[in-house]
Predict the structure of Transcriptional regulator.
Amino acid sequence: MEVLPVNPWLALAPGDDPAERIRQVGRAHERFLAGDRRPERMRSVVADSWARSAAFLQADSTPPIELADDDLEAYRSAHPLAQVMPIFRDLLGGLAEDGDHMMAVCDEHGRLLWVEGHPATLRGAESMNFVPGARWDEAHAGTNAPGTALAVDHALQIFATEHFSHPVQRWTCAAAPVHDPGTGRLLGAIDVTGGDHLANPHSLALVRATALAAEAYLRGVAPAQRRPQVAALGRDEAVLAWDGRRARLGRRHSELLVLLTAHPEGRTGDQLAVDLYGDDVNPVTVRAELSRLRRILGPELLDSRPYRLRTGLVTDFGTVRRLLEQGRTAEALAAYPGGLLPASDAPGIARLRRRLDDRLRAAVLAAADRRLVQTWLDRPWGGDDLEMWEAYATLCPADPVAARRVAALTREYACNVAATWP
């Protein structure tokens, strides 16, 4: 009986014959495509990834290129991982130059920002669009080390026929996610891609150590170079990082902190009560919550009479707003993981959330860029956006999927209107 690796993130168990394992997994892949959705003798991380991948694409699909030329250069130069490229090159550059391997760095959405290696090796990868600007998350490229590392938020190897897409199955790769050490936000992943010989514990340890070195560097520069940071997009509870500390705030404290950052001039207790409760004003409760928040933040951050932040905070929603003001729509969309505190029903938060959503959506529509519209539609909130699908159908008139989706959503919305008509 076959023994799977003790470490589930490693592709091979000690003593495994790589050639035989390739054949075994290849047969399992054929059975999976034929309808056996839980093939035997497969690593669960790979089987689960195949299931996710099959919901989005066919096994012969090629990842799309979403960023190119000036757009790519502008985006990656502003990305936080640009700061640690010297570390990646120092630790993995030798592998990337030996003619057998490539080093790749992707953002949190799976877009390849840098792909480096021997020119001949890079040319060999071009046929599968393993190039800067291509989208290698699971939804666009299937099971692969950087895309799956992002999906499961863990370092891992993907070996040969474990890749979901046939064109990628001659490669083996190892990748590790990289996080912002202050907020814990996923920044992207570092990957090494090459031949079957990469399926060993050393390659996995190497990319993991490289990711940790990058995070350590970012942790070291953050206190000196950055103000306190707030992450509140796409999450129900905000995360605050300051002075080497990191705190996940409760729902009400998250709402208060976001409101205070949106009103640097300060707010009275009554104003905050209206922002939180609308007509059902409860200033006593608000003042009690603010007192608790002040104990968390400390007097060096939160003042009173009026309530205001003594230090300007760097917020992810402020970053998106600033990029939009500068006309950098592609970067704004890339920096937008979801709505502002989406579970909050506080009137003040709902207004801020709606205002930012509307500005970003309008900018994407005004850009009339197929890649931006496609990115919006690929996000969880964009799949049912009829106007955006109509824009995509106009930009890509030959795409039958767009036409079908427009027709389906038009019928669905018409039925909903008819059902509510008196």
In short: The first helix runs from residue 18 to 33. Residues 1-5 have pLDDT under 50 and may be disordered.
